[in-house]
Specification:
Elements lengths: L2 H37 L6 H14 L6 H23 L3 E5 L6 H12 L2 E4 H9 L3 H8 L1 H15 L5 E4 L8 H9 L1 E7 L2 H8 L14 H18 L2 E4 L5 H23 L1
Parallel strand pairs: 1-3, 1-4, 2-3, 4-5
Length: about 270
Amino acid sequence: MDELSRLRKSIDECDRELIKVFKKRLNLVRRIIEVKRKSGQSILSPEREKQVIENAKNNIKDDDYKIEAEKFIEQVLKLSRGYMSRKLFPYNIVLTGFMGSGKTAVGNELAKVLEMNYADSDVAIEKEAGMSINKIFKTHGESYFRAMEKDIICRLGQLSNTIIITGGGSVMDPDNVKCLKENGIVVFLDAEPEIIYERIKDDENRPLLNGNMSIETINELYQRRIDTYNSSADIIINTNEDSLSRITSEIINQLYNMSNALTASSI
């Protein structure tokens, strides 16, 4: 065997050992989940992650590997978080709510924290139609848009381990709610019309407002939808004032509590 072959064989052995150690780590993550469930502890531990990274940095003695080693441990933590979320939340997390309620920002943060996939029904519609939602409304009308929306949402509902962002009016169709709930938990992000107005008043891409950007118009549409938002939701989160991180933490904690309750009821 030549030197290159021997070196490659050694790398293969290293990879096998890495997989063994990583599997052991994931098993420990699973046990931590069980311990936290029994003791009622919060599932999020950002301070612990910082400590793990700091410990890893302190263990790196050779400057030649420091940057790569830091990136390596960060990826290990991301993968561990993804494994944890897959075990805790084996379903899609669906965000519903009025325009300007924070669905996109919260969805992106959830996907980042939980290392889950991310899908936005409006983005998917625009990609399939080859035009903006504003242009779809102007060219084809709302009925055409809603038909496209239903098709896209039913496809997104078949995904797994995904944060799904829905359009503001999507839950008004019971078929959409049914598709989303087949493999998902629905989280309604609620905000008062006055808050919504402040967030979207400069946004011209809101076709349902028909160029009439006012608190009165927003409130009228909000009141027509609020009962359906509430009745279709498994979890309701107010997004009026809290920071993005606090809203995200509240969603995760409520999902975690729901998961614990389901686990307890099955024992």
